[in-house]
Amino acid sequence: MFCSDEFIRPPRGTIEAMSFIARYYAPSIFMRCGCDAKRRMANFLMNNAIQVTNLRRVYKSYVGVFRRKLKEVEAVKGISFEVAAGELFGILGPNGAGKTTTVKMLTTLLLPTSGTATILGHDVVRDVSALRPRIGFIFGGERGLYWRLSGMDNLKYFSSLYQIDPAVQAKRIPYLLELVGLKERANEKVEGYSRGMKQRLHIARTLLNDPEVMFLDEPSIGLDPVAARDIRRVVRDLRDEKKTILLTTHYMFEADELCKRIAVINKGEIVALDTPANLKRVVQDLSVVELEVKMFTPDALERLKGLPFVDAVTVQEREQNSLVIVQSPRGAEAVSELLAQLNGATVQKVTVREPTLEDAYVRLVEGMDETKKEGAGSK
Ligand SMILES: Nc1ncnc2c1ncn2[C@@H]1O[C@H](COP(=O)(O)OP(=O)(O)OP(=O)(O)O)[C@@H](O)[C@H]1O
Ligand SMILES: [Mg+2]
User: Fold this and answer.
1) Domain 51-274, CATH homologous superfamily name and number
2) Segment 239-277, tens digit of pLDDT
3) Nearest to 54 by CA among 109, 122, 1, 102
4) 40-44, 82-86, 161-165, 361-365: lowest mean pLDDT where?
5) 296-334, pLDDT tens digit by residue?
6) Virtual torsion, Cα 276, 279, 283, 289, nearest 10 deg
7) Whose CA is nearest to atom 25 of ligand 1?
8) Fold held by 285-377
9) Does residue 266 have its Cβ closer than 6 Å to ligand 1?
10) Residue to substitute in 73, 74, 92, 107 for testing ligand 1 pocket (most ligand atoms within 8 angstroms of CB)
11) How many angstroms separate the CA atoms of 93 and 329, rounded?
């Protein structure tokens, strides 16, 4: 639970000693007891806003027209993590990794198959009515606003629905419109808003009841770079206000820029959980070679992947060419051998660069897949 390199100074006075014991030892004692009240006490002592233990979710559905067969998808495979009060915690993962499923379980919208999760000490299954008023969530998409009403009227409407005191509304709504940068356009109908503006209005709506913990599921998905930057600014402001935030994203730079710690999730499992700086260390022994190639073929990709000194290869398709990103400890020395594998293709540009968090992510996610493949092969 604590980093091994964390240095815990021994306490001096009696009060200091007692608080030291309460802070560092009591939580683990309470945690081992199954009793809910004790778990809540443990979270309180550890100052954790979110505590997730072995959370798992299996979706069951029937497939086939004539011979109906039960299909099970284990979307989340027993994940555990905790988020401290006031922390901005990121869950990063590719499509289908289980991010939304996790957020839906934590926001009481979906029942876990097994495992437990507590938010602010409330169990997400048993304490739903106590928990809901204390959390806010947004999922990517445009639903949940009244397009014929103005931004201001939407916020007034939802405030009344949430039974927020009119005196509080009168102060809070202008404040939120300012926070999300919609003050100037507050009286225009939402149907005339861009996607980014709608998403910012969503955030304002979520903040109406001043939730202590916010869940943002891919808040910048589908937005243009400028709108996405505006969303990140709002998230940063919320972080600076010390709100506890759980943010899911596909975008590495977003997690790097905003989050204190990141859980990398792939196929329902956490493959790494650390600070962005520590995650980057996963690739500190690597260099990255980027090749801009015309007419890049799947055969060439297989040949590159088969080279003994190549760690991972990813390909980004662009309009005019493909960007082939090769991770290798050899760096510049590997270039000529890499080029030799591309016979028939036209190489337009070669760049050798230092690895980024994105490369660490590729290594973590692809590394896990490779391990699985090896395991399957050896059976
Ligand atoms: N209602 C459902 N019924 C059956 N399977 C589902 C359902 N919802 C999600 N899944 C499956 O669960 C897995 C995890 O999906 P989830 O939506 O949680 O992933 P995600 O990380 O949010 O992906 P994305 O980045 O695409 O939003 C996927 O394999 C998905 O197909
Ligand atoms: Mg999702």
Assistant:
1) P-loop containing nucleotide triphosphate hydrolases (3.40.50.300)
2) 998 899 999 988 888 888 899 999 999 999 999 999 998
3) 102
4) 40-44
5) 889 999 999 999 999 889 899 888 899 999 999 888 899
6) -40
7) 95
8) Alpha-Beta Plaits (3.30.70)
9) no
10) 73
11) 25
